[in-house]
């Protein structure tokens, strides 16, 4: 009943903010979550009460120059994730379930989808203690209502949408500050150089992780489970009877592909490397080249 009421409020807020205020995205956090800039970074509040100050991402302790970003595509089932033990790993939404199973501790965990918190609270609680978490403002709001313990003793960072900040109307990517973002040639996609200025959602939580990996100065980035083409199948941690809807195919042409082309340019111009380790991906290997990840033994 509580979840049903929460969702109805979301529907009404979205209708109001979309058709009256022209800021549809803000329904996911307004009016409960607010972000205030401070001399040291950002403070995030819920209903006027401070929840946390933003983690200093630059101080994360890395163990090397490589990082593995673990998405949730079905191809992961055929890969030996115990290989990730002792390596830098960024987990996304439900892929954190692999950490306990395969014995590795993520460097950072990302939650961009509030629906993940609403539908998979047990996986939210499964994020190992001490692992920093980056959350979208919609995820902050959902967690504050349904998983408030997430804010106790955690190192947290807010994922801000640079294109839509209530009460200001949305802006196109080409109007973002060019010292904070790299913009593609046609002005439709942006790559953040500074997480405090916002992180562009390129149609997938993985695109946010790619920007964070770049900011953290990793020389090589390896993408696992970024399949896309089989998005109608259950994620590697789901079953056919217990799966959530995936919108990757809907967002591929308009958001994901343009962003990944831009990401490839950004990494290449900086003398860094990014690879796709998924053997069944929809993303062309001439955009992000293939790298053969060790297969399950």
Could you please describe the fold and organization of this structure?
It contains seven helices and twelve strands. It is an alpha/beta fold and 297 residues long. The protein has one domain: sialyltransferase cstii, chain A (Alpha-Beta Complex), CATH 3.90.1480. Helix 6 packs parallel to helix 7. It is globular, with a radius of gyration of 18 Å.
Explain the layout of strands and helices.
Layout: H1 2-21, E1 33-38, E2 41-46, E3 49-53, E4 66-70, E5 89-92, H2 97-102, E6 108-111, H3 114-119, H4 121-124, E7 133-136, H5 137-146, E8 156-159, E9 181-183, E10 190-192, H6 205-215, E11 220-224, H7 248-269, E12 273-276
Parallel strand pairs: 4-5, 4-11, 5-6, 6-7, 7-8, 11-12
Antiparallel strand pairs: 1-2, 2-3, 9-10
Helix pairs in contact: 6-7
Helix content: 25-40%
Spell the H/E element sequence. HEEEEEHEHHEHEEEHEHE
The proportion of strand residues reads 15-25%
The count of helical stretches stands at 7
> The biggest beta sheet, please?
7 strands, parallel
Find the structural class using helix and strand composition: alpha/beta
Query: Separation of termini?
Result: 46 Å
Low-confidence stretches: none
- CATH architecture heading: Alpha-Beta Complex
Mean pLDDT: 88
Q: Roughly how many Å is the radius of gyration?
A: 18 Å
The geometry reads as globular
Name of the CATH class = Alpha Beta
